[in-house]
From TrEMBL:
Domain PAC residues, every copy: 316-368
Ranges where the HAMP domain occurs: 192-244
Keywords carried by this UniProt record: Kinase, Membrane, Phosphoprotein, Transferase, Transmembrane, Transmembrane helix, Two-component regulatory system
Molecular-function GO terms, alphabetical: phosphoprotein phosphatase activity; phosphorelay sensor kinase activity
Protein name: histidine kinase
PROSITE patterns to which the protein is assigned, alphabetical: HAMP (PS50885), HIS_KIN (PS50109), PAC (PS50113)
CDD domains: HAMP, HATPase, HisKA
Ranges of residues in domain Histidine kinase: 372-593
Keyword Phosphoprotein: yes
InterPro entries found in the cross-reference section: BphY/WalK/GraS-like, HAMP_dom, HATPase_C_sf, HATPase_dom, His_kinase_dom, HisK_dim/P_dom, HisK_dim/P_sf, PAS-assoc_C
TM helices/strands, residue ranges: 168-191
Catalytic activity: ATP + protein L-histidine = ADP + protein N-phospho-L-histidine
GO BP annotations, alphabetical order: cellular response to phosphate starvation
């Protein structure tokens, strides 16, 4: 119920109760006054009639017939019942009776008012008449010195008094009702004027509670409502400031969370998810927003659930653990910590999943690298050690074997030197320690230098080495590194070829996405590479056929060096091969470096 209605109801009830009390009291007072006025009138009329009787004492006008006419005339004029009684109580005249009725009337000497008037001169009573069966108010007055009348009695019907009283009371009630309605109308206007500011302030407070902090407050004065409106305005300003601060902090937190690449999970004590960032949803392949869902329904990993539950139960961080997902090949390190309230009680558990897939991959590469380097060095070192021991134990005297052993030792030491050199070179390239010196080159000149050098090394293998490069085909690149790239590719094409095979160096101008580019192709019709090995041939020390590679010299680092040098030039390398058909390696350079 509105405050306006409450105030108006209280006002109306107060006015109504007051009106009823006032009307009731005034009605009773008015009834008493009316009755007293009638009594005074009866008394005055009785005195007048006594004076008339005293004046007519001894005359013929005081006969029974004359007295009856007098009583009837007086009663009709006054509207009362007039009775004249002798001193023995016999009724001589009565305005309510005719002459035959007078004879039948009882003796009135015993009537209370008559008896009192006989004794004291005045008598009164209120009772029902035994003659007319009507309630009267009787007033009796003793008349001295008149004969035959001794008592003048005037009777006023009480219903007549009540009618007058009712008439006055009704008039008062109507007046009171009109006044009450006027008071209620004025009260409504007053209450409306008083409550309207409060209602508007209440409406503004409700809008504030609903989140609307910008709706205007009603203009009010400097009374209590005005102070309340000012307080509400200050409260809204404070809330708006706090909300802006919270929103700013929330935006900052969301920005920080969006920048966190680790999976972040916040779980409440009821085991329901409070927050999960996008990386975590991707880890567990969650489509929608999991906030509010049970942990076990979203994170289907026993290790993660165990860590979170342990943190919630004990309020301490659980030990770090590495979790692997075989289906995706990814690995994560999970760390958990409790979120405490101001009383030190655990409110939630925070879990972070660090993606260590790359670290584990790098660790695997490191182990493989160490293993490969150890293997590549162990084999020539073992051979060198064996031949040196053979020479020391008497082989020096065998000239033919001594020369052969020393050539083998020289070949192995040369291989080890090349391996160490290429490892050092690859490390510099990968760490960015190599600076390119790009210049405008004639590609035919560079290709001729490479083919001339390798033609001498592989001259006895009956492999055709050719170039198909347009005249004046120029390219901007680092000459030394370009020669290194082509040497590694052509060397591999010659190594893994067959007698009568061919190796070609080709060059083209093409476009990619509207941008010009240069393509250099090294193609052969050698043994080829299985399709499942193509992606791995650029890894360090990787060899397609270990058994076949034992008879082919090389460090296994050539293609890895080619890949990284092409990246330094801003280009890339592509390889296509078919087992038994041949291999085609394409070097793609941008138009400018």
């Amino acid at each position: 119920m509105k405050i306006r209605h409450k105030l108006l109801m209280a006002f109306i009830i107060t006015a109504l109760v007051t009106s009823v009390l006032v009307t009731g009291g005034a009605g009773r007072l008015l009834g008493t006054v009316v009755e007293e006025r009638y009594v005074e009138r009866i008394q005055a009329e009785s005195l007048l009639m006594r004076a008339w009787l005293e004046e007519k004492t001894g005359s013929a006008e005081l006969s029974t017939g004359s007295l009856q006419d007098f009583a009837i005339t007086a009663g009709a004029r006054l509207g009362y019942r007039v009775t004249l009684i002798r001193d023995d109580g016999l009724v001589m005249a009565d305005s309510a009776q005719d002459l035959p009725g007078l004879i039948a009337m009882d003796n009135h000497a015993a009537r209370p008012e008559i008896a009192m008037a006989m004794r004291e001169g005045n008598g009164e009573s209120r009772r029902t008449s035994a003659t007319t069966r009507t309630e009267y108010y009787y007033r009796a007055l003793r008349v001295d010195g008149t004969d035959p009348v001794r008592i003048i009695r005037v009777a006023l019907p009480t219903n007549q008094v009540r009618r007058i009283q009712s008439r006055y009371v009704s008039l008062m009630a109507v007046t009171t009702a009109v006044v009450l309605l006027a008071i209620c109308a004025l009260g409504y206007l007053f209450v409306s004027r008083l409550s309207k500011p409060m209602e508007e302030i209440t409406r503004a407070a409700e809008l504030t509670a609903g989140g609307d902090l910008n709706s205007p407050l009603p203009p009010v004065g400097d009374d209590e409502a005005g102070r309340l409106a000012a307080a509400v305005g200050d409260m809204r300003a404070g809330l708006l400031h706090k909300i802006e601060e919270i929103a700013s902090e929330h935006r900052l937190m969301l920005s920080m969370m969006s920048g966190i690449r680790e999976g972040l999970l916040l779980v409440g004590t009821d085991h329901r998810i409070l927050m999960a960032n996008q990386p975590l949803r991707e880890i567990f392949e969650v489509g929608g927003n999991p906030e509010g869902d049970l942990l076990a329904e979203v994170v289907r990993n026993p290790s993660v659930i165990r860590h979170v539950e342990a943190t919630l139960e004990h309020g301490t961080a659980a030990e770090d653990e590495i979790i692997r997902f075989p289906a995706t090949g990814r690995a994560f390190e999970i760390r958990t910590a409790p979120v405490l309230d101001e009383n030190g009680q655990t409110r939630a558990a925070l879990a972070l999943l660090f993606d260590i897939t790359r670290l584990e991959t790098l660790e695997g590469v490191r182990r493989e690298f160490v293993s490969n380097v150890s293997h590549e060095l162990r084999t020539p070192l073992t051979s060198i050690q064996a031949f040196v021991e053979t020479l020391l134990e008497g082989g020096m005297d065998d000239r033919e074997n001594r020369t052969r052993f020393l050539k083998i030792i020289r070949r192995h030491t040369t291989f080890m030197g090349e391996l160490i050199g290429e490892l050092s070179d690859l490390n510099k390239i990968e760490t960015g320690a190599v600076d390119l010196d790009p210049v405008d080159l004639d590609l035919m000149e560079v290709a001729a230098a490479v083919t001339g050098k390798l033609a001498q090394a592989y001259g006895g293998q009956q492999i055709e080495l050719s170039t198909e490069i347009p005249p004046e085909f120029r390219l901007k690149a680092d000459r030394r590194r370009l020669e290194q790239i082509l040497t590694n590719l052509v060397d591999n094409a010659l190594k893994f070829n067959k007698a009568g095979g061919t190796v070609r160096i080709e060059a083209y101008r093409t476009r990619e996405g509207g941008n010009p580019r240069t393509e250099i192709v090294v193609a052969d019709d050698g043994v080829g590479i299985p399709s499942d090995c193509i992606e791995r041939v650029f890894n360090r020390f990787y060899r397609v056929d270990q058994a076949r590679s034992k008879d082919v010299s090389g460090t296994g680092l050539g293609l890895s060096i080619v890949k990284h040098l092409m990246r330094l030039h801003g280009g890339r390398v592509e390889l296509a091969s078919e087992l038994g058909v041949g291999t085609r390696v394409t070097l793609i350079f941008p138009d400018r470096l």
